[in-house]
Amino acid sequence: MGMTFAEKVLAKKSGNTHVVPGQIVTVQPDHLLTHDNTAAIIGKIGKELDEYGVVRDDLSVIVLDHVIPAASEKNAAGHKKIRAFVGKHHLKNFFDVGEGICHQIVYEKGFARPGMIILGSDSHTCSYGAVGCFSSGIDRTEAASLMLCGETWLKVPSTIKITLTGKLRYPAMAKDLILTIIGTLGADGANYKAVEFHGNVQALTMDERFTMANMGVEMGAKVTAFPVDSTTMEFFKARGVEVSPDDTVWADDDAVYEKEITFDMSAIEPVTAAPHTVDNLLPIKDAEGIAVNQCLIGTCTNGRLSDIETAAAVLKGKKVSPDTRLLILPASRSILREAMAKGYIDTLLEAGALLLPPGCGPCLGAHQGALAPEETCVSTANRNFKGRMGCKEAKIFLASPATVAASAVHGKITDPRKEVS
């Protein structure tokens, strides 16, 4: 009997020839991701760190991104504590404020590679399945333990196979595709399961794959994964990251799945996830005309260069409605610089958008874009729960960059097909 992607990675990393769903295995992750929450994590194990130190100086990838620049004395003190920790233990992979969002940094700097295991104290660590990496979120206590001993246990998940056919028809985007998938399976439809994407994945760019893998946790998935193909290898080559085809892992043809489902990408239309759950799916026509006070394009889900390019194309020669505000949040410093070089940022600023530093800020309601009671935001982020953007009495609609940009022009949710020829 063949094995799925998750089963094969966990078997290899745990020293087993074969594993099955439900089996507990012990593994040593290639990397551990933490961000601003590193301060709280190391606070749990201060005495142990003083006595034993960290297990490896290259295990941790620490990125300050959630509240940057520091919005309060408390935030600043946390950042100071993290910098001191990094210096004391001579950690090799530290990225200070302004470098970007942690998931983008792990992705673009080549920390995540095919066949690896990366665990992180952030639920959207599942993003790296875009490059064939087994990646998943863990809690802070597990992260603290990993810093000290370098190994942990995982339960082998069962797997859902999603086959993609056809091609997306712009302005339908990968965000519309993954929202449709989540709306079909439900917010708990893949709880503690792996999700594999098969079929015509070659029709999706790396940016599109990252968006989809990033939102796997919004249907409860422990892991989301794409196969490694020529597009993946070109991505690594362009970044000077050496990847051997021998390192790649993918499911066997005779692997056994819990469920199989097919989506025709050519049939995907612009949609939105209405408040207050990600699986509250609406065709865009059913949400059209809803007034929006704020529009957000960016975050770890849709803050890549292609997303900013899409927004600039929609807004070129137009103005943001006086009834709303448009926030642009690049996922990293390198994306920001390239977007500036290509003129996208100038186009967006000319239209009336507000540029924020590469980070998480408004996505979690930490600062720089928190909502007020009764306000509505249409956002390219990944969550629309009550209070997600700082206010339990606000409403968040999730949509693609094209939809958010079109909505910014009119100050109300707008079908992007009306703005894109």
Sequence-ordered SSE layout with sheet pairings:
Elements: H1 5-14, E1 24-27, E2 31-34, H2 38-43, H3 46-52, E3 60-63, H4 73-88, E4 94-95, H5 102-108, E5 117-120, E6 134-137, H6 140-149, E7 152-155, E8 158-165, H7 174-185, E9 193-199, H8 206-214, E10 223-225, H9 230-238, E11 259-264, E12 271-273, E13 281-283, H10 284-287, E14 294-298, H11 299-302, H12 305-315, E15 325-329, H13 333-341, H14 344-351, E16 354-355, E17 376-379, E18 395-398, H15 401-410
Parallel strand pairs: 2-3, 2-5, 3-4, 5-6, 8-9, 8-11, 9-10, 14-15, 14-17, 15-16, 17-18
Antiparallel strand pairs: 1-7, 12-13
What does this structure look like?
This protein is α/β, with parallel strands linked by helices. It folds into two domains: about 5-265, Aconitase, domain 3; about 275-420, Aconitase, domain 3. About 30% of the residues lie in helices and about 20% in strands. It has helices at about 5-15, 40-45, 45-50, 75-90, 100-110, 140-150, 175-185, 205-215, 230-240, 285, 300, 305-315, 335-340, 345-350, 400-410; strands spanning about 25, 30-35, 60-65, 95, 115-120, 135, 150-155, 160-165, 195-200, 225, 260-265, 270-275, 280-285, 295-300, 325-330, 355, 375-380, 395-400. The strands form five sheets. It has a five-stranded parallel β-sheet with strand order 4-3-2-5-6, sandwiched between helices. Strands 16-15-14-17-18 form a five-stranded parallel β-sheet. Helix 12 (about 305-315) packs parallel to helix 15. The longest helix has 16 residues, at about 75-90. The termini are far apart. The relative contact order is 0.14. The mean pLDDT is about 95.
